[in-house]
Amino acid sequence: MGERTSRLSRRRAMTLAGTGVAGAVGAAALGGSRSWDRPGTEDHAAAAVPFHGEHQAGITTPAQDRLHFVAFDVITKDRARLVALLQDWSAAAARMTAGRDAGELGAVGGVPQAPPDDTGEALGLPPSQLTLTIGFGPSLFRDAHGRDRFGLADRRPAALAALPRFPGDALRPEISGGDLCVQACANDPQVAVHAIRNLARLGMGVVSVRWSQLGFGRTSSTSRDQATPRNLFGFKDGTANVKAEDDDLAEQLWVQPGDGPEWMTGGSYLVTRKIRMVVETWDRTSLGEQEALIGRTKGSGAPLGRGDEFDELDLELTGPDGEPAIAEQAHVRLAHPSQHNGARLLRRGYNFVDGSDGLGRLDAGLFFIAYQRDPRRQFVPIQTQLARHDLLNEYLRYISSGLFACPPGVRDGADHWGRTLFG
Amino acid sequence: MGERTSRLSRRRAMTLAGTGVAGAVGAAALGGSRSWDRPGTEDHAAAAVPFHGEHQAGITTPAQDRLHFVAFDVITKDRARLVALLQDWSAAAARMTAGRDAGELGAVGGVPQAPPDDTGEALGLPPSQLTLTIGFGPSLFRDAHGRDRFGLADRRPAALAALPRFPGDALRPEISGGDLCVQACANDPQVAVHAIRNLARLGMGVVSVRWSQLGFGRTSSTSRDQATPRNLFGFKDGTANVKAEDDDLAEQLWVQPGDGPEWMTGGSYLVTRKIRMVVETWDRTSLGEQEALIGRTKGSGAPLGRGDEFDELDLELTGPDGEPAIAEQAHVRLAHPSQHNGARLLRRGYNFVDGSDGLGRLDAGLFFIAYQRDPRRQFVPIQTQLARHDLLNEYLRYISSGLFACPPGVRDGADHWGRTLFG
Question: In this predicted complex, what is the ipTM?
Answer without folding.
Answer: 0.88
